[in-house]
């Protein structure tokens, strides 16, 4: 069917390309260079589909969309934008765009979108989120996610599509790729944004405590359960529950979670009555769950329950185009925190593009922060990047033989192995047991104090130690408990 397509873009090249491509398919194309001409055509009842750029000389098309939707509710609008941010994608979708395409776009995708839009006109009922609802919360000036690579654009498009739904999402990506940030964006821009976002990391909770952590427990449910405990499901009521590192969930807890997802109800440990589970679930993992299913480590039925909408976050090394934007963003954050302003020399960006970033965006973030703190030069060049990369404290994800999956005990084992190997012709000095335990005790106590801002009572509670015992150990290890002012 030959249709009339209205195109609005102030870039002449785009108007020409679209007119040719759509003209060849037999459509009539009318192209305008500003928003007011487009609006005039729409008012005159012209056109079967609109394709519009966002930023035009006279008006931002995002402001025009609601008017078009009001006047011609059945006229599909395809938005193309070179702004390429999550916020643009979400705004366009929210205001009722039929499709959002980031520039530069693939012509085949555009033609596909036009065809779907025309099919939609013939058979209405399409999915432009209606009614176009404007979210006050969805206009943070700060962008939640940085990066304009095609891979990130695709992720923004998916997030925008999910904004008005409660669909379960499973995010997959290496450590540090931004899984939690995506989960937060889904919550912050979604309809549950006024309710809590609760994150639980399955890898960080002892196996035997996972169920009570998630579902809560009744008083007396187990030794130590002196009071009723509220679980994360209840805490997140009305909001979003982010199950991080879902691949680390023990199989029994998986069974229980599956039952909750199937029935929509949960019971606290030691309790009977079912409580309605009003949470949106977003899960994330860096593991290959399909492989785990084959090996019997993950329940297939749970996987399908969670994998309703899969999102794959690519590692940073596969989207080097994002590195410059991200690096500048982190430098700007450091500057906001009172550090000296710094700029990046092109040679620094080139160098960073060839590095492999095993710790992904988190590693880049740490590197930029370190450079902001430790280097006095105001322009960062290749040499500084090289030096900073070389002195990098190897994090588990950065170590060549460590990989992101290394557990604490594996890493200790690796260290001890190195220690024994350092004495090839004999044994280390005796008294090893106490020496090694102290090695572990020291960072554990220091970090606990740091986490409780030097509050010894809270640190003792956190550690499950008697206060006097903690004080004694701090003295023995010569750790100065300094209380930070804030
Ligand atoms: N696209 C992005 N834009 C801005 N900051 C980002 C982006 N991706 C990641 N970050 C930052 O990098 C750090 C790591 O991100 P995040 O914690 O979301 O990763 P993750 O994949 O959940 O990691 P892990 O699997 O280790 O928990 C955070 O400080 C986050 O703010």
TrEMBL record:
Residues 145-373 form the Sigma-54 factor interaction domain. The keyword Phosphoprotein applies. It comes from Dongia sedimenti. SMART domains: AAA (SM00382), REC (SM00448). This is DNA-binding transcriptional regulator NtrC. Residues 4-118 form the Response regulatory domain. The modification 4-aspartylphosphate is found at residue 53. Member of the two-component regulatory system NtrB/NtrC, which controls expression of the nitrogen-regulated (ntr) genes in response to nitrogen limitation. Phosphorylated NtrC binds directly to DNA and stimulates the formation of open promoter-sigma54-RNA polymerase complexes. It is found in: Cytoplasm. SUPFAM superfamilies: CheY-like, Homeodomain-like, P-loop containing nucleoside triphosphate hydrolases. Its main location: cytoplasm. Keywords: Activator, ATP-binding, Cytoplasm, DNA-binding, Nitrogen fixation, Nucleotide-binding, Phosphoprotein, Repressor, Transcription, Transcription regulation, Two-component regulatory system.
């Amino acid at each position: 069917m030959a249709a009339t397509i209205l195109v609005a873009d102030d870039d002449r090249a785009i108007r020409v390309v679209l007119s040719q491509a759509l003209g060849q398919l037999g459509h009539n194309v009318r192209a305008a260079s500003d928003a007011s001409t487009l609006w005039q055509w729409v008012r005159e009842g012209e056109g079967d589909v609109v394709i519009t750029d966002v930023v035009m000389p006279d008006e931002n098309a995002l402001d025009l969309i609601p008017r078009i939707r009001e006047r011609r509710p059945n006229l599909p609008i395809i938005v193309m934008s070179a702004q390429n941010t999550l916020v643009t994608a979400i705004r366009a979708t929210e205001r009722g765009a039929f499709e959002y395409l980031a520039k530069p776009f693939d012509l085949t995708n555009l033609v596909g979108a036009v065809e779907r839009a025309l099919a939609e006109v013939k058979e209405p009922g399409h999915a432009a989120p209606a009614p176009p609802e404007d979210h006050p919360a969805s206009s943070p000036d700060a962008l939640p996610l940085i990066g304009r690579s095609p891979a990130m654009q695709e992720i923004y498009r998916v997030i925008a599509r999910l904004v008005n739904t409660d669909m379960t999402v499973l995010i997959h990506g290496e450590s540090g790729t931004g899984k939690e940030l995506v989960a937060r964006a889904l919550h912050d821009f979604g309809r549950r944004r006024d309710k809590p976002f609760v994150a639980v990391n399955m890898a960080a909770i002892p196996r035997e405590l996972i169920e009570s952590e998630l579902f809560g427990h009744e008083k007396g449910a187990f030794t130590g359960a002196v009071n009723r405990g509220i679980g994360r499901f209840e805490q997140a009521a009305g909001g979003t529950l982010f199950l991080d590192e879902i691949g680390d969930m023990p199989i029994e807890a998986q069974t229980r979670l599956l039952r909750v997802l199937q029935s929509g109800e949960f019971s606290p440990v030691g309790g009977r009555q079912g409580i309605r589970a009003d949470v949106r679930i977003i899960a994330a993992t860096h593991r290959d769950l399909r492989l785990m299913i084959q090996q019997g480590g993950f329940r297939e039925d749970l996987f399908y329950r969670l994998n309703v909408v899969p999102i794959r976050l690519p590692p940073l090394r596969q989207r080097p185009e994002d590195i410059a934007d991200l690096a500048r963003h982190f430098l700007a954050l450091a500057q906001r925190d009172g550090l000296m302003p710094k700029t990046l020399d092109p040679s620094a960006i080139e160098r960073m593009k060839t590095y492999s970033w095993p710790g992904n965006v988190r590693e880049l973030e740490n590197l930029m922060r370190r450079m902001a703190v430790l280097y006095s030069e105001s322009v960062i060049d290749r040499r500084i990047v090289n030096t900073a990369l070389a002195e990098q404290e190897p994090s588990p994800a950065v170590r060549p033989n460590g990989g992101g999956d290394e557990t604490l005990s594996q890493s200790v084992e690796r260290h001890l192995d190195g220690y024994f190997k350092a004495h090839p012709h004999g044994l280390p000095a005796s008294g090893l047991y106490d020496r090694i335990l102290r090695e572990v005790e020291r960072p554990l106590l220091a970090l606990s104090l740091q986490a409780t801002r030097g509050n010894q009572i809270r640190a003792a509670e956190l550690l499950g130690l008697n206060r006097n015992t903690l004080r004694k150990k701090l003295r023995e290890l010569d750790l100065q408990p300094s209380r930070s002012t804030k």
